[in-house]
Design a protein that fits this description.
- The protein is an alpha+beta fold and 493 residues long.
- 26% of the residues lie in helices and 23% in strands.
- It has 13 helices and 21 strands.
- Strands 5, 6, 7, 8, 9, 10, 11, 14 and 15 form a 9-stranded antiparallel beta sheet that branches. It has a 5-stranded mixed beta sheet with strand order 17-18-19-21-20, sandwiched between helices.
- Strand 7 and strand 8 form a beta hairpin.
- Helix 4 packs across helix 8.
């Protein structure tokens, strides 16, 4: 059965042992954020908060909605369940499913007449964002963040492109929010199109939507591609949307909370800092960001607000941004004629590494003879795409290594990467300003450089790979099978 709203998703997670109900009142002031952080770092079930010591009843909060699990063989159970895949799906399974859907025709959303979020509606002077349980998530955050796992809907003035995206939004007061609106990001492109005709951008913010939507919002699709249609192709069904009350937009009908209004690029307030995906609260001056002015708030009875506590891995930036990014890059590399087995952004690397694996016969299949030339083509392909914009470091390995296995990856990178030979350096390429290692001057200039680490065998070896001294690779198949069969006989559990 497809999971078409957040409440169905919560019950599905509950049946899988991935929900922890918290009935004791907790404070929105750091305590709730600290609980979510600990759940992320221990792989504990997603916490469902039902009462707050410093906010009236009537709302709930779901923490770590797309985090990783400590269940053996089910680390990505929340990701897989969100996308309608089996709960024991591996990282490679999920990447292949997303990448494969990119060649399917889009399935556009359908508009329905009504939605549960309109059980409670406030417009005009009655709008008050303070009625919502907005947490202070990290010690050091510059404010309280309402949007950490929501779908921002925006459409170009000519109606040709409807963009769904995800970006942080900080509460300013009862009627205003602010957040990063980067000009190179899609919401920034749409906002500029409105500013060019002298108007603020209409927006809708859908919070608590059906579980697959944040993953398409975090996916770096090419410009002018509608995320809703691509998600329909992935799920094999159209997403239901509903018309907003005060702006000319359609938002996901599954929303628990729906906020409408206009984004004003010509008005700014101080915003941030905020604990982010690299794992730090940035040490930088407070920035002035554009203002979202709110014209309507609608919500379900007993509405559920999802909250992400970004920071050290693993959290939703690494799953809902990293995994779809790897899938898009895998699709792009294959479209460029490269023999690529898989692509993966290791969760523990906080979006700073991308791993690409190739078969041992990549020379024959690509027509490229030298491994450095292959790395150069991989880098040129990746860094020219929107998906590759955030990636500063690429690791190229043979596909005898499973890049989703962190132990294997660390061993392979340590033992196969020559300190200075064969790597492809890309100087003066813009990097995402939130990358942790950048100096202030590099963030301002934008030109920093990137690298593709060549971890392939020396070219003179050809297709010959060294024998791995491991249980899986270092013994004949019949010995591996015999040891597995007799494991209990030896006295092991």
């Amino acid at each position: 059965m497809p999971l078409t709203d957040l409440r169905q998703y919560i019950e599905a997670l509950r049946s899988l042992g991935e929900i922890q109900d918290i009935d004791a009142p907790v404070s929105l002031n750091l305590e709730l954020g600290a609980i979510i952080r600990r759940c992320n770092e221990t792989g504990a079930p997603a916490p469902l908060f039902k009462a707050f010591s410093d906010h009236p009843s009537g709302f709930r909060i779901l923490g770590a909605p797309g985090g990783a699990s400590r269940q053996a063989g089910r680390q990505l159970v929340r990701v897989a369940t969100s996308l309608g895949l089996p709960p024991n799906s591996t990282g490679q399974d999920i990447v292949e499913a997303i990448a494969g859907s990119l060649d399917l025709p889009p399935i556009d959303p359908v508009i329905v007449d009504d939605a549960p979020c309109f059980e409670n509606v406030r417009t005009g002077d009655d709008v008050d964002l303070n009625l919502l349980p907005v947490p202070l998530i990290h010690h050091g955050d510059g404010g309280r963040y309402l949007n950490t796992w929501g779908c921002i809907v925006a459409r170009t003035p000519d109606g040709s492109w409807t963009n769904w995206s995800i970006a942080r939004m900080m509460l300013v007061d009862g009627k205003r929010m602010s957040g990063i609106v980067a000009p190179q990001q899609h919401v920034g492109m749409v906002a500029k199109a409105w500013a060019d005709i002298g108007k603020p951008m209409p927006f809708a913010l859908a919070l608590g939507v059906e579980p697959a939507i944040p993953f398409i919002c975090g996916m770096p699709l090419p410009d002018y591609v509608n995320e809703s249609g691509r998600l329909g192709a992935l799920l094999g069904r159209p997403i239901k949307t509903v018309r907003c009350r005060t702006v000319d937009l359609e938002a996901p009908a599954s929303a628990e909370i729906l906020i409408e209004g206009h984004l004003h690029l010509d008005e700014s307030v101080q915003e941030g800092p905020m604990g982010e995906f690299a794992g730090y609260v940035p040490l930088e001056p407070v920035m002035r960001r554009p203002v979202y002015r709110v014209s309507a708030i609608s919500h379900r009875d007993d509405a559920i607000l999802p909250v992400v506590a970004a920071g050290e891995p693993v959290e939703e930036n690494h799953t809902a941004w990293g995994i779809p990014s790897a899938a898009q890059i895998l699709h792009d590399l294959r479209a460029a004629g490269l023999a690529v087995t898989t692509a993966w952004m290791p969760l523990q690397a906080a979006l700073h590494w991308l791993v690409v694996t190739v078969p041992r016969d990549w020379r024959r299949r690509t027509g490229i003879e030298e491994s450095k030339a292959l790395c150069e083509k991989i880098g040129k392909t990746i860094f020219a795409t929107k998906a590759g914009a955030v990636v500063p470091k690429v690791i190229v390995l043979n596909d005898d290594v499973d890049p989703t296995d962190t132990d294997e990856l660390v061993w392979a990178f340590a033992t196969r990467c020559h300190p200075f030979l064969g790597h492809a350096n890309f100087d003066h390429i813009d990097a995402a300003p939130l990358l942790a290692y950048l100096r202030t001057s590099e963030k301002v200039s934008g030109a920093t450089g990137k690298i593709v680490y060549n971890c392939l065998p020396p070219d003179e070896w050809g297709e010959i790979l060294p024998i791995r001294a491991s249980f899986r690779h270092g013994y004949p198949p019949e010995i591996v099978d015999r040891v597995k069969r007799r494991w209990g006989e030896y006295g092991f559990r």
